[in-house]
Design goal:
The structure holds 2 protein chains of 2 kinds. By secondary structure, chain A is mainly alpha-helical. Chain A is built from 15 helices and no strands. Chain A is globular and about 65 Å long. Chain B is mainly alpha-helical. In chain B, helix 10 crosses helix 12. The longest helix of chain B has 25 residues. About 8% of the residues of chain B have low confidence. The chains are: A mainly alpha, B mainly alpha. At the A-B interface, helix 3, helix 5, helix 7, helix 8 and helix 9 of A face helix 1, helix 2, helix 3, helix 4 and helix 5 of B.
């Protein structure tokens, strides 16, 4: 027992998993020199923390715990190296994965192939990979100075000027989709300052009251639509089996459709689009 | 009316609806403290009581950083690590070396290999008859090189709108690009254009993938364009191979569920026009330059159509 509780034992455990630590560092930084530096940093941290002797509460497997710790220390190392990053607001609005890709592309200045490799553990099928590629392409096309190194430290304001939304230069055939994105932006603004488009906002609140998504349902949707995970993997993260995941997915979609129609939000958005198209 | 239809279509888009559902009516501030490493690990291994579980999910829902830590760590726990770190580290280079070696061997054996692939046969016949890239560069009209440059440049210009270029378009353009090389004596090793990534290269090299089909159609288009734009006598067997190619490809396209119906229509219609109206005509009189120029224009139309319309 004394042996198990000693930090020597935990040190052994860490070094038993050195392969894993190196792998995580390599996935995060890809560049072999950065990865080596990051591995050294992680090991230094672990040594300072007595090889996790006190942190490991045995509420998970040791391997899962170590992955979680190393992953977090690698993020610390990233912050030390590149500073705290503030992506443009429109990227933050797209969810956590977009921020992650932005960091790798525009701050770490990784090549496209390296970004793909670095995120390959998240993309569990070809479709996810395609979606990640689309995100990469969009960020490269829309973020000015993305490839010109660090302009995105926390002190910087959003890169895009007001009249140059990321959507402004897209082709005609995508304009309806853009319009819809604009409406979601209106809705977001509306939530901060009610009064701009009261009717839309009221319907929007009604929509949410009818829909009543639970936190796990929201996260499930985030997994699928923002992080582009497959339904199976998204469900697995919520501890649901394949059947549960697929039926839950169908149910949520039906509920969203119903809520959109009952609340009148769908009609309100169509009205808004019509108005915009007439003005053009 | 047209606009309304489009809007309704877009409104039916699940992605948009889900995004509306995910917008938070209340403040976006993080709820509670960020999760500890042990919290994340316990969440992944499902070792939490329901109260702690709910509390953690609520925080994760409002904190992108914890959300990404969770997704990352979860994904890593699912991955199987390569046994040997040396193999892992040099895995990419190693595979690259093997692929390069294989490519060199294939290229070396290529002229002696009697294949039943009509496209490869066509290239082989073209090469055996000294129909090389240089021969095809004519003085009287824009050279093949310039014409192909025109396509590729036009394509690269469209790639400025990154979102608009599909994998299928990239695969087709890659086909055009790489087909130049077997016709060019100086080019002995296949090079890929810089607008495609390794994922796409792997895909087009898998013979049964839909992107591979489209890639080979790109190669075929360039070959036919090069042949008809030349004033070189073209052996009858070369034309015969084209019927085989068109029939084979048409069958594969019809059967392939991964190719969108709209894309199938575009390609099959193009094939039909080229096959029925033009190749039949030219077979009767190979040396008829006027007929060749009609095919050339038809192929050009087809290339531009595929490059701009494929989804």
């Amino acid at each position: 027992m004394a042996l198990i509780d000693s930090s020597k034992y935990y040190k052994k455990q860490v070094f038993k998993h050195l392969n894993l630590i190196e792998y995580l560092a390599e996935k995060q930084f890809v560049d072999p020199n950065d990865a080596l530096e990051a591995t050294t940093y992680v090991l230094d941290c672990l040594e300072k923390e007595s090889w996790l002797k006190d942190q490991f509460k045995k509420k998970s497997s040791y391997k899962t715990f170590l992955i979680s710790v190393v992953n977090n220390r690698l993020r610390d190392f990233f912050r030390k190296k590149f500073g705290r990053i503030r992506p443009p607001q429109w990227i933050s609005d797209q969810g956590a994965l977009w921020k992650e890709i932005f960091k790798k592309l525009c701050v770490q200045q990784m090549s496209i192939m390296d970004v793909e490799y670095s995120l390959s553990h998240i993309a569990d099928n070809e479709q996810n990979q395609k979606e990640i590629n689309k995100v990469i392409d969009t960020i490269l096309a829309k973020v000015e100075n993305c490839r010109k190194n660090n302009h995105f430290r926390e002190s910087m304001d959003d890169e895009l000027p007001d009249n140059d939304t990321p959507y402004s230069s897209l082709e005609q055939e995508e304009k309806n989709r853009i319009a819809l994105s604009v409406y979601t932006t209106i809705i977001q603004n509306e939530s901060c300052s009610p009064g701009i488009n009261n009717q839309l906002y009221k319907k929007y609140i009604k929509f949410h009251k009818i829909l009543e998504l639970s936190t796990s349902e929201r996260l499930f949707l985030k997994h699928i639509y923002q992080t582009h995970l497959s339904i199976n993997k998204a469900g697995e993260m919520m501890s649901w089996n394949t059947n549960q995941s697929h039926s839950k997915f169908k149910q949520i979609k039906n509920r969203i459709n119903k809520a959109l129609s009952i609340s009148g939000l769908e009609k309100e958005i169509i009205k808004l689009i019509d108005g915009q198209n007439e003005n053009k | 009316m047209k606009i309304n239809n489009t809007i309704s279509d877009v409104l039916l888009d699940d992605i948009f609806k889900a995004k509306v559902a995910l917008l938070q009516p209340d403040s976006q501030k993080s709820k509670g403290r960020c999760l500890s490493d042990q919290d994340i690990a316990s969440l992944i291994d499902n070792r939490l009581d329901s109260e702690a579980y709910d509390r953690m999910l609520e925080h994760i829902d409002s904190c992108d950083s914890c959300y990404m830590r969770w997704v990352d760590a979860f994904s890593f726990t699912q991955e199987k690590l390569p046994e040997n770190p040396m193999i892992r580290k040099y895995y990419k280079d190693f595979i690259g070396a093997v692929v390069s070696l294989a490519a060199v061997i294939i290229l070396f054996l290529y002229p002696f290999h009697n294949t039943s692939d009509p496209l490869q046969n066509s290239f082989k016949i073209a090469l055996n008859n000294n129909i090389t890239y240089e021969n095809l560069t004519l003085n009287t009209k824009p050279s093949i090189e310039n014409q192909i440059k025109k396509y590729i440049t036009a394509f690269q210009n469209t790639t400025n709108n990154y979102q608009k270029v599909s994998y299928e378009q990239k695969a087709f353009a890659t086909g055009l690009y790489t087909a130049l090389q077997p016709l060019h004596e100086a080019e002995k090793q296949i090079k890929y254009p810089d607008f495609i990534d390794s994922n796409l290269i792997n895909n087009i090299n898998q013979n049964d993938s839909s992107l591979s089909i489209i890639y080979h159609i790109g190669r075929w288009c360039l070959l036919i364009k090069a042949l008809v734009d030349s004033n070189i006598e073209i052996p009858a067997e070369l034309w015969e191979e084209q019927y085989v190619f068109i029939n084979n490809m048409s069958d594969r396209i019809k059967k392939d569920d991964n190719i969108l119906t709209g894309d199938k229509d575009i390609i099959l219609r193009g094939f039909k026009t080229i096959n029925d109206r033009l190749l039949n005509n030219i077979q009767q009189d190979f040396s008829n330059i006027e007929r060749r120029s009609i095919i050339s224009k038809e192929i050009e139309k087809f290339i531009v159509f595929v490059l701009t319309e494929l989804n």
